[in-house]
Design brief:
CATH architecture: 2-Layer Sandwich
Number of helices: 4
Oligomer: single chain
Number of domains: 1
CATH class: Alpha Beta
CATH topology: Muramoyl-pentapeptide Carboxypeptidase, domain 2
Strand content: 15-25%
Structural class: alpha+beta
Largest sheet: 5 strands, mixed
Distance between the termini: 30 Å
Radius of gyration: 15 Å
């Protein structure tokens, strides 16, 4: 069993599509004035079980970046989201500690530079090929402490990858 603690304790059972056995923390979206709950909701289920610690990191990034961030994927319900249901082990989006930000060209360069400078994100994925409307940067805060039992032994954090 894994516990993620920040503003509350979430309890997860391994390999059961990360269904929470305790209710998620009620998020006060006033603490994140540059974001709306709708931006992070699962496109399949409409749930938004984001981890407040991740939202704090995103709000700080947004304040430092001083430009809007368009979220293309936030929370992904591991029981209904088409990407997650194909996985044996749920990904970091299903834990509410990741988001994909639609961004390309110079803005992508600037966002990547800022994310690396801040050193608060432990996973950075870069997709900058194809049509500009499909380009994004993935950011997450996964660590051995908050995602440990699901980490493969060879995964090292912090890390950067490309799609």
């Amino acid at each position: 069993m894994i516990r993620i603690e920040s503003h509350g304790v979430y309890t997860y059972k391994p390999f059961n599509k990360a269904k929470r056995t305790e209710a998620p923390v009620k998020i006060d979206w006033r603490n994140y004035p540059n974001f709306k709950e709708e931006e992070f909701k699962c496109t399949a289920s409409g749930l938004c079980n984001m981890e407040p610690k991740f939202l704090e990191a995103m709000q700080y990034l947004r304040q430092q970046f001083a430009r809007p961030l368009k979220i293309s994927s936030g929370y992904r319900d591991p029981t209904t989201h088409p990407v997650e249901i194909k996985k044996v082990v749920p990904g970091v989006h299903s834990w509410g500690i990741a988001a994909d930000i639609l961004v390309s060209h110079k803005l992508a360069y600037d966002l990547l530079s800022m994310a690396l400078t801040l050193k608060i994100f432990t996973g950075i994925g870069i997709k900058q090929n194809g049509h500009p409307t499909g380009r994004f940067i993935h950011l997450d805060i996964a660590t051995q402490e908050n995602y440990g039992d699901f980490f493969k032994k060879e995964i090292i954090r912090p890390t950067v990858w490309s799609y």
